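Dear colleague,

Thank you for sharing your sequence with our group. We've completed the structure prediction you requested, and as agreed, I am returning the results in plain text so they can be pasted directly into your records. Please verify that the sequence below matches your submission; if there's any discrepancy, let me know and we will rerun it promptly.
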Amino acid sequence: MQGKKLSHIDVKGNPAMVDVGGKMSTQRRAVAEAKVRLPKEVMSLIENDELKLAKGPVFSTAIIAGIMGAKKTSDLIPLCHPLAVSAINIEIEIKKNTVVIKCDAGIIGQTGVEMEALTGASVAALTIYDMCKAISHDIVIEEIRLIEKSGGKSDFKRK
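Please find the predicted structure tokens below.
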């Protein structure tokens, strides 16, 4: 890690937004994943890959919430740039007792969309928790992580 420095700290050590004004606009993409472990009493209510409760369809609502959250990332994370994200896609897959949420975000811009993808996946996971908590509080958001990013200075893909 030698030679690397925190990008959101100025020369005096104060928090600062990164200046991306001199960067070229390029096609950028990021994919993030969140995992939500559901207890048996919640899993038993899933039919046809959807969980319908009194509050409505859980996974469909989580997808919409995740998209909305990704679009509002700069309102939530203090030093993120407000971005005109060109694409956000959220997919939900059920694997055993875990709901896997993938948020894929894209933009043509001067900075990446990793935080938007991470925020989208996070908000979708939190929405699942919120909608299911009346059934059980044994819901666990286990993991939120970047899966891949492309465009900009460096590409990344989790193995």
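Summary note from our side: The mean pLDDT is 91.

Kind regards,
the structure core
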